[in-house]
Amino acid sequence: MSRPASRLHSMLVLLSALVALSSPTSAAPPVRLNARAVSLPLTCRTGTFQGKILSRVEVWRGVPYAQPPVGDLRFERPQPVPEVGLDDPTFGVVRDATAFKPRCLQTSSKENAEDCLYLNLYRPQGTAASAKLPVAVYIFGGSFYSGGANSYSPSNMNVPIIVVTLDYRLGHLGFGASPALRAAGLLNNGLADQREALRWVHDNVPYFGGDADKIMLFGQSAGAISVSYQMLAYGGNLTELVRGAIMESGAPGTAFALDHTSSFPAKQFLTEDSKNLIMLQKTGCVGAVDEIACLRVATTTHILSGQSAIRSYGGFPYAPAIDDAFLIDVPSKLLDAGKFAQIPFISGTQLDEGTDFMASTAFTSLNLTTDTQLTAWIRAQTPGMSATDAAAFLRLYPNVQSAGSPYNTGSVKFLWKLFKRSSSMLGDLAFEAPRRYFLRAANLLDAANQAAAANSTLVQTVTTTTQPVEDQPVGLTLVASNSTKDGSGSNTTMSTFEGTFTGNITNTTTVLTPFQYAPLKVWSYQFSQTPAGGYDYLGASHGDEVPWVWSTSTSTEVGADGLRNAMSDAWIYFTNFLDPNGPTSPVFWPQYLQSNKTQLQFKLGQQSLISDTYRSSAIDFINGNEAIFGQ
């Protein structure tokens, strides 16, 4: 269901006015629609692309942001697409960008290919080249082995922003880990793909009417986890590309979303070495002198066969890994050290995060009915957990149906005896605990920054400039001083030279300035709406918020329009102003602070504030034992 035209018009006017008022240093308002529209096709740094006009948006589909990662580039870092200059034979050649490209290699889709590093760019119809619209870049989820950018479109959102969706390598090609890949520095290629896409957007979005200085990154599930790891990457070096982030059900340290070496195989049913051996067996590369070279010539059929065999062991076998480059340590240590991008962010979860996973094929065979089985399952996920720790952890989750997830369902039992109890544990372990840890780290860093500013801490800034010169007149005086070993005598010689100099002159300037405090603002939400016609045993489960954010929910329930508008508007406002509050917000959404721990609850007709203190003892236990849970 689309929004009323009058409401859309009002929102665009308000956004345009507010952006103009809030950006005094900007020469032109960042939102300008329906004026001097750029005609299709459109030329950017990497070529000319023919897009497509839909009912409310103009879209360019399948635009390459990196070279095809095939052949010798399989398992390599993404290589930038060359810029097309005036002397390039392809300059002016129009490339078709009206159809989606296949998803990255996976077994979950028939339309997939290894040549898959493409993105899709949407802008409001009639956007001017000089509009300088804010940009929202979306990373999809799918447990790092499935999914695609073509599942998401902002066509129903009616928004004055540019939206970009991107594909990135999945499974073994994007997140494969082995001693050979580790030694070659080729882990986390899927994350590297995402970073390369961000660079492309930053460099090229101005040609589409976007503002390269106003890029917001958001994602869901594995996409949200990816966003969080982009914030941790290289010690937090992201601010040149992104100024804000939204994470829907995913945060640094999310359980099952960090691969470890064989010495600490936490959160994985298979160790790194075991997964590598299976892939080598399926590709005929066991015993190869150069494993990577052998895998590069393996067929995609054999690669997919290896992935399927690895997945058959259950769980979530593919995930980012600590690699001493992109992700240099476990998230908890990086967060504690303040090594993450200091940008405003929103981090939220579903009411019942664990139910969908416990009911999935990854866990249905467990049929947990006794504490002994539950203890064994928990310890299998966390090899660092002792029997004593496991017993203490289980005591924090009462064996009472009314206390389990899906929450607010009373004493009703779903699926097996301990389904609700185990769903509650998994939801907290995988999503709620990491979310709170990240929010707390941001609050603590903000407080430290504020204290540093209050104490007038001086920050040393060193600026070095190098300037080439030719036949530059110079005068040079050399002073030489000698002293006897016992210090009883000394001799000083001065020599003066005059002439010309050709080469580079380097000037270094050191300036001490007071620490400049910039508030690190964060918000949190809980999505609590159970979908109409959904399964009772799932509740408001993982991913249920997605259609509401993208305004694709077809719900006709009372209050559905209000919920759709509340969520999508908050995301739009945040993209524009780095604040989810705006003129159409039904409830003021306060920042998340350790002093209030307030979340905004999204629910039909009940957008309200709630306290983020539920199951505090259990979640505090998880966050207080990072070594056990591998966060």
Automatic annotation (TrEMBL):
Keywords: Hydrolase, Signal. The keyword Signal applies. Residues 1-27 form the signal peptide. It comes from the Eukaryota. It is an enzyme of class 3 (hydrolase). Its EC number is 3.1.1.-. This is Carboxylic ester hydrolase. It comes from Rhodotorula diobovata.
